[in-house]
Amino acid sequence: MLKLARTIHFDDSDQQVFARPATTGEWAVSGGFEFSNWTDSDLTGKARQAFANGWMGVGSFGRATFVAVAQIEEAEITEATQALADHMLEIYGAPSPEIAYVAASHEIEFMQELCEDQDPNTLLAINRELTEAGVKEQFRAIKPQDADIAQVAVHATED
Description:
seven-stranded antiparallel sheet; 5 helices; 7 strands; alpha+beta
């Protein structure tokens, strides 16, 4: 089973903290490449929040605080990779469509590696810091709570 992560929102806080919030349910990547040339002077306001803990949605190219691991089809991976490659070409000036596609493929593959050993619906959080060596990313997985729907239904009918 192929896995990737989708953006998720529990409230409207992402609307407040990110200059461009991601759309709920879009495929996501770390998006750390956006910060590769940043310095401490770039880390202010909403840009700092995007840097510190924002996943990049592939579609809106906005940011989300959390993503959830989900199953993905091969065709969707190809679609997301092409969308990310187009974004890299248009916004970040990749030297060619081919190079942009290779870079986008690496981003998608990295995200797949983060998701592959996680159960569906596991939440992922990211934390970035700027070091002398560049951007350092740390990831945290929050396992889904087990819910026994049958047990809940039995208790509900007994009352």
